[in-house]
Amino acid sequence: MSAEEALEKARDAGLDLLEVSPNADPPVCKIIDYGKYRYEQQKKAAAARKNQKVVDVKEIKMRPMIDTHDYEVKMKAAHKFIDNGDKVKFTMRYRGREMAHQELGMEVLMRAKDDLADKTKIELQPKMEGRQMTMVLAPDV
């Protein structure tokens, strides 16, 4: 039907004419209550926002010569972060002569990766960035 007829029908019904598909030939329109339509769209958007999980990246900083108890405390925190569904970024900081022995820090990061292997997948392999080495682990879904 023509646009004038559609507008007339919408006015008679006390509703609005909503163009659904303007690029179609001919354009497709609906006769609806526009206020109610917008309200329902807002409700759908709010429900979608409510159900989505925001993944944070939690950072754990270590040193190459970390002691066993300190390492265990950091791993306990990492397990907690992974269980909450967050990613964990391990940062290995080097100072002074530690830069000459980067393999020590790499061993600590590999041990952390092995300890979390059952719950995580590696998202970013260990790599050097200036004086620190970083690695990112994500929860295994």
Task: Describe, in plain words, how this protein is organized in 3D.
A hairpin with a 6-residue loop joins strand 1 and strand 2. The protein contains four helices and six strands, in the order αββαβαβαββ. It is rod-shaped, with a radius of gyration of 28 Å. The strands form two sheets. It has a four-stranded mixed β-sheet with strand order 3-4-6-5, with helices on one face. The chain has a two-stranded antiparallel ribbon with strand order 1-2. 42% of the residues lie in helices and 30% in strands. It is α+β, with helices and mostly antiparallel strands and 141 residues long. The model has no long low-confidence stretch (mean pLDDT 91).
Q: What best-fitting shape do the alpha-carbon axes yield?
A: rod-shaped
Percent range for helical residues?
40-55%
**Category by helix and strand content:** alpha+beta
Low-pLDDT regions: none
Share of residues in strands: 25-35%
Provide a quick synopsis of the model.
This protein has 141 residues and is α+β, with helices and mostly antiparallel strands. The chain contains four helices and six strands. The longest helix has 18 residues.
